[in-house]
Specification:
There is one protein chain. With 405 residues, the chain is of the alpha/beta class. The chain has two domains: 146 residues, Aspartate Aminotransferase, domain 1 (Alpha-Beta Complex), CATH 3.90.1150.10; 236 residues, Type I PLP-dependent aspartate aminotransferase-like (Major domain) (Aspartate Aminotransferase, domain 2), CATH 3.40.640.10. The chain has 14 helices and twelve strands. The strands form three sheets. It has a seven-stranded mixed β-sheet with strand order 2-8-7-6-5-3-4, with helices on both faces. Strands 9-12-11 form a three-stranded antiparallel β-sheet. β3, α6 and β4 form a beta-alpha-beta unit. The longest helix has 22 residues. The radius of gyration is 21 Å and the shape is globular. The protein starts with a helix and ends in a 12-residue tail after the last helix. The structure holds pyridoxal-5'-phosphate. The site of pyridoxal-5'-phosphate has 13 residues, from loops.
């Protein structure tokens, strides 16, 4: 019995692989601080849980339209119209079990299998983009993000990658894994290119409520862009609802096609959870704002502590809950091959992080090494985790770290 090449070649999200590793080590009794998974450590706000309970009691337990319950779509349309300053109608919205499935649906809706259709995506980036482009039989075209550009891309690098086969560009701001933000000027240039070369933009805006220094800007808000933008967002990150599996997209033209993919796969999103998401986007926002304030404080703490480590430089991320320090000098000084070896060494010493290679292959000519830490964890964990890292890496004010294998 054979397994298909498509399945054997399927990528993965290493956060889940390392999470399984971390949980196995924890079961063996190993004391670990984990900075691996992009999941808020808060509980879902009470008003959202109550809305779900009410929905269950009101019998919201059957199939729904594949695009989602109309009143929930209407609430999301209103939320998007206000936050993106565009006119989103309920019919433009499709709900699914998380924002993740829409990556595959959007690629399937805009490219054909095996004919050379190209999708450009950020590298490093959320690993499911590349994995799903390949699984859908399209051609992955990685777009390098650079520390020099605060983890945005050079517009010429994008221009060089556009061809007459480009069907879609994926952007993600605020960005996983770097915490980078695409500035409005960059969005304008991207918009001009999308119009000129007539391609779709998949705007992964799952972290849009977690932008610290500036108001979040969506490419869909730029003139003439909503029609060619698939806005993707969801409840997971800003409302501590990762396990509820609630996400949505909006696009006037593609919505019915995306809904047909939902019919073919999930049938519809979880009925009662849709009501929880309706409460999340249209109910009081205080709990979500408190979470973001807490992420902001943790961001400042973790970046300060990372920058005290010898051979580590960390930019202040503008959004999401990830720090992406450059560890090139630390890797060299410790005589390690790369950031992945550093990750393994840190794991042995009680700290779980991810390495840059978990977010895409190195871009040609890239010599810098990075690791990713999710700071969606308590300040106490951040302080203890960074203390452990200091024993391995050393601090800028001491000569070398003490290695404790
Ligand atoms: C960039 C990005 N997009 C999409 C998702 C998917 O989120 P969900 O399926 O939980 O809505 C994630 C989750 O980590 C993410 O980091």
């Amino acid at each position: 019995m054979d397994v298909s090449k498509r399945t054997l070649g399927l990528g993965t999200e290493n956060a889940f692989v390392v999470l399984a590793e971390v949980n196995a080590l924890k079961r063996e009794g190993k004391d670990l601080i984990s900075f691996c998974i992009g999941q808020p450590d808060f509980d879902t706000p009470q008003n959202i849980k109550d809305a779900a309970k009410k929905a269950i009691d009101a019998g919201k337990t059957g199939y729904t339209d594949s695009a989602g319950v109309f009143e929930v779509r209407a609430a999301i349309a209103k939320h998007l119209s206000v936050t993106r300053k565009i006119d989103v109608k309920p019919e433009h919205v499709v709900i699914a079990n998380g924002a993740k499935p829409f990556i595959a649906y959007a690629i399937a809706c805009t490219t054909d299998y095996g004919v050379g259709d190209e999708v450009i995506y950020p590298n490093p980036g959320f690993p499911i983009y590349e994995s799903q482009i390949i699984a859908s039989g399209a051609v992955p075209v990685p777009l390098p993000l650079t520390e020099k550009k605060k983890f945005s891309f050079e517009i010429d690098e994008l221009k060089n990658r556009i061809s007459n086969r480009t069907k879609m560009l994926i952007i993600n701001t605020p960005h996983n894994p770097t915490g980078g933000i695409l500035e409005e000027d960059d969005l304008r240039e991207v918009a001009a290119l999308a119009k000129k070369h007539d391609f779709w933009v998949y705007a992964d805006e799952i972290y849009c409520r977690i932008a610290y220094d500036k108001e979040f800007k969506s490419i869909a808000s730029l003139p003439g862009m909503y029609e060619r933008t698939i806005i993707s967002d969801g409840a997971s990150k800003a409302y501590a609802m990762t396990g509820w599996r609630m996400g949505y997209i909006a696009n006037q033209f593609l919505a019915p096609y995306v809904a047909r993919w939902v019919t073919n796969t999930e049938s519809c999103a979880n009925h009662m959870a849709q009501y929880a998401m309706m409460e999340a986007v249209s109910g009081p926002q205080d709990e979500s704002k408190k979470m973001v304030q807490s992420f902001r404080e943790r961001r400042e703490l973790i970046v300060k502590l990372l920058n005290e480590l010898d051979g580590v430089k960390c930019l202040m991320p503008g959004g999401a809950f990830y720090a992406y320090p450059n560890v090139t000098d630390a890797v060299k000084r410790l005589g390690l091959k790369d950031s992945e070896e550093l990750r393994k060494l840190l794991l042995k010493n009680g700290v779980a992080v991810l390495a840059d290679i978990h977010f895409g292959k190195r871009n040609p000519g890239e010599t810098e090494q990075y690791i990713r830490l999710s700071y969606a964890t308590s300040k106490d964990n951040i302080i203890e985790g960074l203390r452990r890292m200091k024993t391995v890496i050393g601090s800028k004010d001491t000569e070398t770290g003490t290695l404790s294998f």
